[in-house]
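agent: user wants the structure for (1->4)-alpha-D-glucan 1-alpha-D-glucosylmutase from Sodalis ligni. delegating to structure tool.
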Amino acid sequence: MKIPTATYRIQFRNGMTFDRAAALVPYLKRLGISHLYASPVFTATAESTHGYDVTDANEIEPAIGGRAGFHRMVTALKGAGLGLIIDIVPNHMAASLENPWWRDVIEHGENSRYARHFDIHWSRRLTLPFLGDTFDAVLKNGEIAVRPDPKTGKPAFAYYDSFYPLAPETWADREAEVLNLTDKAKIAELHDRQPYRLMSWLEAPRDLSYRRFFEITGLVGVRVEDKAVFDDTHRLILELVHSGAVDGLRVDHVDGLADPKAYLHRLRREAGPDCYITVEKILAEGEDIPADWPISGTTGYEFMASLADVLVDGDKIGALRKAYHDVVGKPVNMESELRAAKLLMVDKNFEGEFTTLLMLAMAIARGEAVRLDEKAARSALRELLVAFPVYRTYGTAQGLPPADYGLLQKVAAKVRTGVNAPEPAALDFLIRILAGEISEDASGEAAVFRTRFQQLTGPLMAKSVEDTLFFRQHMALALNEVGAEPVLRVFPLDRFHAQMKMRLERHPDALSGTSTHDTKRGEDARARLYTLTEAPELWAACVARWRRMNHSNVTALNDGPAPEPAVEWMLYQALAGVWPTTLHPHDEAGLQALEGRFSAYVEKALREAKLRTNWADSNDTYEKAVLDYARRLLSPTNHDFLLDFFGALQPFIRAGLVNSLTQTVVKLTAPGVPDIYQGSEALDFSLADPDNRREPDFAALERLLPEDDKPVSTTEEGWLRGRLKQHVIARLLRLRRQMPTLFRQGDYLPLAAAGRRGENVLAFARAENDDALIVITPCLVFGALRDSLARPQMKCWPQTEIILPHRLAHRRYRNILSGEEIVLTDRIDLASVDGCLPVILMS
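agent: tool returned. relaying tokens verbatim.
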């Protein structure tokens, strides 16, 4: 297997085509990338901006170049010695009329060849929740009629631009009569005879006959656990792997599958031993992927989360929390907030999935002659789901693996002793079903329950934490990130070192990401916002002053002020994270461009919080008031605030840039395969999607990258425009390609800094045989920086040194960034180096 030394993620669609990607190959090679990492390239819905709504898994998207364009890109990559990794989506496809398989199921119901390709509950008619109101209401309003489908000429229910085909047996013998239907009662009767039921999209959370992806009714679950379905959905994928066009696969949302382990083993068998495979998987703290999965690891969210142990000031974060509580007006209990978010998901957003599980449990109880009160069972199931601490377990028809069985017992014990403890007998029965401790006659139903339960805990966790809680609680937005823990914790540097050692031991070939198409903010925005934990009193004073300056823009509504204090805190912090390093308050065009992006983010943040507005039922008055406030912040006429904000932000910008370089160097030198998200090789201050999926200015990035190997430039402009970061990346990626064994297998050696500023240093080494790399990076240096990063920052590390173990001492080293040759004794005196810059020494 050819393991990547570094990947570069490109988002196709929205103007990015295969030919444009092929034109970037010389730049990627010069940057030091070994593999292009592509977003989904298969045919998706016409308006898709991301490609995860696949309509044909066996066709390359024509809009981005089709098979011919794909081949040209592959040829360019291979010609330059670069590989290709593609993102595949086995869990779901588009529930769209553009999907020929789905359309066939709509037309033929259970008789369709594809009726078992999708995860549909065929105990009733297929639900199609794509109407703006109930079927009766849209029929009464004349919004639906029977007309010929413009593409097929066959009768169909016409609803605006959508044409839902009629089952042949309901019209074949009387086509002319059907096409002239005008009587609404007869249209309703015809609808009743279809294998599907058209319904309002608002009914989907509580009444859906198919498994969806999270809350998205337009994405239907696929049953890849069935070999025939696997073969049909992976035909082209495997062809591309076997032909050598594709070197690796990234598996999207592996936790959504009925049996991830079985799927991955089948994928490995079919793709072969040389295919590099990673999975998108969110790991809780202390959790690891199952050891028997035949993959190289995850896409790296756990690596991103581990960086907080380096860049968060754990000694001062309590002061930031107190300041936030003062603004909110009360202490925030994160455990209670997490429970509230999960209950919202269980009771409302996933009501249908929950009810299906409950009915399964009741049916099993009847079959087992167990007296199970439905109300008690509902309470027990609810508490069990809410208490679940990880995305899922990996039970099969045979029951739970030992580790998952142990986890289930711990969760059950917590539920039993909790303040909301359900009836013990009901909880015990659910645990028996999940554990497989049930009669053989009920084992089939128990296996279905187990699978459905496991397929629900992941979406429940994701939507509760990432897409609800993280938009409700704003103490430190840098910590509200995919893969991060939602509850309070400490940030010890020793834990980071332990995690890196474990990463080397277990998953040395996993991806190490810092930005993705799904992160809540770009890596440089996050790096800047970490610095708020270093100066909490200063930040709190700034927010208090800015709130006073903009108080006249707060609107008094019947349900409270808009924005409320907690949202004001969020707005200033989000604006601080997204503010471009070179944007000046007098730049009206720049302010206008930022205002458009910022407003879109604010609307999303308000709706995801689901407090005073949401996606299903927007509160237009509230949203307008908050958006007006946000837009006013960036209005050129609000010059007093803008000048104050700009000035106050400068030390956070400088410290954030140092943080950015530290996390970049760590990503490139610690165990794992560094993944560069498009454009983040310079600076990435993006917000949540769709902002983070904007195409970067590739032409500017190419111009920015130096052609030679001169020492890294550390000018002020180099810091502010991302040239320094890009230059460091290029220098280290070339080193990785020259010495892949050192970075893949080399020991990870934590190095301790002693002395006056030892807490401001993260240091470690990688060593393999006679090769050694020493990495020394600054951290928590907010209070030590001067007013310009271009000047020497000697005061960062005075009277501080690193003691070297015998394995690293008394050797000649070359500074990778400066080119300087030095001979080390048994220690490194950090007073002699620029504390803003990482020190990377190669022997």
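agent: one observation worth passing along. The chain has a mean pLDDT of 95.
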